């Protein structure tokens, strides 16, 4: 070096050293200004500095400059960092000499467990400085000696409370791994635990950067590092932010493509990527699909010999492969098949995890596994199904939907003979609606050609009483879905009994349906069955199977209660079957006689009489077209109604009598037009002899409903007897006094009923009753009616008027005399005159 150059060097160095005197001032403003002036001098465009000059300046002044990083004043430290960054990054050439002095200070300030640097902004600047150094010295030997210091600093800074520092530290770790690719592995695992602390940070950008940092760290770590991070990384699949979930997929894909021992860890990394294939966000699904395809293609290329057979049939998907699904490439399928036995235990375990998010993601993963494994899932099906039964009962509808979808996929690829041997015995032992959900998916997914021969067997299982007879709300809904999907699989190849089994299930669902399912489980289910069996109407279905169903339920009717399954099914059947009721009268009669015995449960009898009343109300459809209608009704009256109308003490007995009398009223009602008279037989007299005394007695019953029904039944019975010429004077004289007594009944409805039905009693009386020796009876009838003819109620007056007109056929002369005699004392003079005029007019005619 010449003297001139030496003088210039000394002059520049001296000037900087002179400026450094300000850095020792007690005034913080002076110290700060000193750093600014040094930077201004070194950056002066009119002054050029050689590398040697800059080195000498740093050597002479570094102790003053770097000491500013420890200054008590934050603004001074900030300016010192700015100058250090200017020197190390912008001015000074690459040389580990400068870093030797800088790193100890940075380690001291932010690389210790104890917090030295209190300012968040300064800590951030120091990390930025470190990151700039790593970037500048990337892939140089000068950085290698400081790897340990970098790791020490970043291990602490990544745990900083300030989010920006965490985020930048993660980026710096990635840069450090890139800068020292041959050496980073020696320190990489020391950063795993510090970086994992960022996984739970509330700021999603920090979580994203920490995931990428872990991905880079593991690329330089041993298998122990990967084992340590797989679980925390899997937890980020449940993150609410899509970017975070995408980051997991990106990292997993990179490991599967580049990790040196990736073949040993595919079973751990596969779920991290496959879960994204069913993500809620389309962008995440698309990215995961692209990455997964790339992984599969690489695996395919690396194992081309082993996959030769599959590659040869690449463009030939299996028969009945779902048309709406793109089949994964052979590499993807082979990857899953080779690792499925290692993945399924974890899936089975996590499907029943207490955390909702884990169950959702795990069910999504199951769908992806089922799609890729195809028939390869067979060996693990038993363990998976056990977990799926439980998961199918999840409160989260997303889990249930995924389980159903996975079941469909399994149904597509696994043969019926395999999955049926696993699920049907389980259902038979003790079913819940989770079993039915999975069964529904399996049946729905199974190709028609393969399952049509077994539909009957499945239906038979489901129609068994322990399986079919359930009152649980969700169970019933799943049973409905099973019935509907089985109907779609029913063909001419299906066994003939299948229709009955489906019918039995449907009727049982209608009979036992939960109150919450009233609008979901309706008679419309028969529409699906009608279309399946290819019959014209519901009537045909009931005609085909009602008898067999009744044979199945007729087990000890005398022991039934309102909640007995067989009782509910029986009553639902007779209420809905219409014409099929008349086709099975003998069997129904046998059951009803036992069910309505006077010793059976009172509440059960009430319910049965109510249903039976509805049936008799429609007897033009249900009974009268049957040739056995007469015998059935006569049997019902003799063996059911007669015993049921006998008086017994107690409120329950009173209610049963009222309901039985009401049911009898419907049974005795006139037949519809064009059908055979069901009581036109020689047996009617025997019925009257037994029934009439009971009805007379019932008119005095404490229940006004019983009294009302007794009056109506008596009138109907009288009408039927007249048609059969079986109505006697003794019958009339036994009945009409009770009707007259009911005109004084305290209940208005009973009084109205008595007046409304009296014309039927007094019409076409036996000829002997008109004779003189029955004059007292005539007088009693007329006097009683005239008394009530003076009632204040106009409705009552009108009804009495009609009854009085009907008595004219019995003894008109007495009636006219009584009207004339009572007219002066009655208030209803107008009614008397009108009645007399009407009777006189009838005489003239």
UniProtKB/TrEMBL annotation:
SUPFAM superfamilies the record matches: ARM repeat (SSF48371)
Q: From the UniProt record, give one GO term of the biological process aspect.
A: outer dynein arm assembly
Q: Which residues form the Dynein axonemal assembly factor 5 TPR repeats domain?
A: 23-309
Q: Which residues form the Dynein axonemal assembly factor 5 HEAT-repeat domain?
A: 320-512
Cellular component GO terms, alphabetical: cytoplasm
Q: What InterPro entries does its record include?
A: ARM-like, ARM-type_fold, DAAF5, HEAT_DAAF5, TPR_DAAF5
Pfam families according to UniProt:
HEAT_DAAF5, TPR_DNAAF5
Q: Which molecular-function annotations from GO does this UniProt entry contain?
A: dynein intermediate chain binding
UniProt protein name: TOG domain-containing protein
């Amino acid at each position: 070096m010449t003297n001139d150059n030496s003088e210039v060097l000394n002059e520049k160095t001296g000037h900087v050293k002179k400026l450094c005197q300000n850095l020792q001032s007690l005034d913080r403003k002076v110290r700060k200004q000193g750093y600014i002036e040094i930077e201004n001098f070194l950056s002066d465009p009119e002054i050029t500095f050689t590398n040697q000059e800059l080195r000498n300046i740093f050597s002479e002044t570094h102790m003053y400059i770097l000491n500013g990083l420890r200054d008590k004043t934050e603004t001074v430290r900030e300016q010192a960092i700015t100058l250090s960054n200017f020197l190390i990054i912008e001015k000074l050439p690459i040389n580990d000499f400068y870093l030797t002095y800088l790193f100890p200070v940075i380690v001291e300030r932010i690389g210790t467990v104890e917090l030295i640097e209190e300012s968040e902004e300064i800590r951030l600047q120091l990390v930025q400085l470190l990151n700039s150094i790593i970037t500048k010295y990337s892939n140089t030997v000068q950085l290698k000696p400081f790897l340990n210091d970098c790791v020490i600093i970043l291990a602490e800074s990544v745990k900083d409370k300030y989010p920006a520092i965490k985020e930048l530290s993660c980026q710096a770790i990635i840069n450090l791994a890139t800068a020292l690719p041959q050496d980073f592995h020696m320190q990489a695992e020391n950063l795993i635990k510090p970086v994992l602390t960022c996984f739970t940070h509330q700021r999603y950008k920090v979580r994203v950067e920490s995931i990428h940092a872990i991905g880079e760290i593991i690329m330089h770590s041993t298998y122990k590092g990967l084992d340590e991070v797989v679980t925390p990384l899997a937890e980020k699949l449940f993150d609410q932010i899509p970017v975070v979930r995408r980051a997991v997929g990106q990292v997993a894909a990179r490991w599967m493509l580049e990790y040196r021992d990736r073949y040993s860890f595919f079973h751990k990394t596969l779920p991290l990527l496959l879960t994204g294939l069913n993500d809620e966000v389309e962008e995440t699904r698309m990215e995961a699909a692209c990455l997964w395809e790339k992984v599969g293609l690489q695996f395919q290329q690396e194992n081309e010999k082993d996959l030769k057979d599959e590659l040869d049939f690449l463009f030939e998907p299996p028969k009945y492969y779902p048309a709406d699904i793109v089949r994964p490439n052979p590499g993807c399928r082979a990857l899953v098949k080779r690792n499925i036995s290692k993945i399924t235990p974890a899936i089975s375990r996590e499907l029943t995890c207490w955390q909702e998010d884990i169950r959702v993601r795990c069910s999504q993963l199951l769908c992806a596994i089922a799609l890729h494994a195809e028939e390869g899932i067979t060996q693990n099906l038993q363990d998976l199904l056990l977990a799926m039964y439980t998961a199918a009962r999840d409160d989260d509808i997303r889990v249930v939907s995924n389980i159903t979808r996975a079941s469909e996929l399994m149904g597509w690829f696994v043969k019926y003979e395999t999955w049926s041997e696993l699920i049907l015995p389980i259902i038979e032992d003790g079913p819940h609606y989770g079993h039915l959900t999975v069964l529904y998916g399996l049946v729905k997914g199974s190709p028609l050609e393969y399952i049509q021969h077994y539909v009957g067997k499945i239906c038979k299982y489901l129609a068994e009483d322990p399986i079919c007879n359930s009152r649980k709300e969700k169970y019933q809904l799943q049973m409905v879905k099973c019935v509907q999907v089985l109907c779609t699989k029913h063909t001419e190849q299906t066994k003939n009994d299948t229709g009955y089994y489906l019918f039995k299930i449907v009727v049982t669902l209608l009979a036992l349906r939960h109150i919450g399912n009233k609008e979901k489980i309706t008679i419309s289910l028969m529409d699906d069955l009608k279309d399946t069996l290819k019959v014209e109407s519901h009537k045909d279905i009931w005609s085909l199977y009602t008898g067999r169903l009744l044979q199945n339920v007729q087990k000890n009717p005398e022991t039934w209660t309102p909640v007995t399954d067989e009782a509910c099914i029986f009553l639902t059947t007779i209420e809905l079957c219409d014409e099929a009721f008349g086709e099975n009268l003998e069997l129904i009669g046998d059951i009803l006689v036992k069910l309505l015995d006077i010793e059976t449960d009172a509440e059960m009898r009430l319910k049965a009489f109510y249903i039976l009343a509805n049936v008799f109300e429609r007897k033009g459809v249900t009974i009268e077209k049957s040739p056995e209608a007469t015998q059935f009704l006569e049997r019902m009256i003799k063996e059911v109604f007669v015993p049921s109308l006998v008086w017994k003490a107690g409120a329950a007995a009173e209610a049963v009598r009222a309901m039985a009398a009401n049911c009898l009223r419907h049974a005795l009602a006139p037949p519809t037009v064009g059908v055979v008279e069901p009581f036109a037989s020689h047996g009617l007299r025997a019925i009257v002899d037994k029934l009439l005394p009971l009805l007379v007695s019932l008119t005095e019953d404490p229940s006004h409903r019983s009294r009302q029904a007794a009056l109506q039944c008596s009138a109907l019975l009288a009408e039927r007897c007249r048609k059969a010429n079986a109505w006697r004077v003794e019958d009339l004289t036994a009945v009409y006094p009770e009707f007259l007594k009911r005109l004084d009944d305290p209940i208005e409805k009973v009084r109205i009923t008595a007046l409304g039905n009296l014309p039927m009693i007094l019409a076409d009386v036996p000829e002997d009753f008109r004779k003189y020796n029955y004059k007292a009876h005539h007088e009693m009838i007329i006097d009683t009616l005239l008394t009530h003819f003076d009632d204040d109620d106009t409705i009552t007056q009108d009804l009495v008027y009609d009854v009085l007109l009907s008595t004219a056929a019995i003894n008109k002369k007495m009636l006219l005399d009584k009207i004339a005699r009572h007219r002066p004392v009655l208030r209803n003079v107008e009614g008397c005159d009108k009645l007399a005029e009407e009777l006189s007019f009838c005489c003239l005619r």
